[in-house]
Write a structure and sequence with these properties.
With 69 residues, this protein is mostly beta strands. It is 0% helix and 54% strand. The strands form two sheets. The protein has a three-stranded antiparallel beta sheet with strand order 3-4-5, with no helix packed on it. A two-stranded antiparallel ribbon has the order 1-2. It comes from Idiomarina abyssalis.
Length: 69
């Protein structure tokens, strides 16, 4: 992860509603991963979609209702 490309975004935990900050790196393209909520400790499913044409990144978060293997 290149620190020059990091952006900090505020998201609301889908479990407890607490606002938490995520560091995202859109230079790595589309991503699908999990982060831990700093307040409740539950896992947050994070999806990052990068639109290179319009130079935009979209972050979607939801509860970790599915098990990832």
């Amino acid at each position: 992860m290149n620190e020059e490309n990091l952006q900090s975004v505020s998201v609301k935990c889908p479990h407890c509603g607490h606002n938490t900050f995520l560091d995202i790196d859109a230079s790595e393209g589309n991503q699908d991963y999990q982060e831990e909520c700093s307040a409740c400790g539950d896992l947050i499913h994070v999806q990052l979609q990068v639109d290179e044409v319009n130079q935009q990144a979209r972050v979607k978060v939801d509860g970790n209702d599915e098990q990832f293997y």
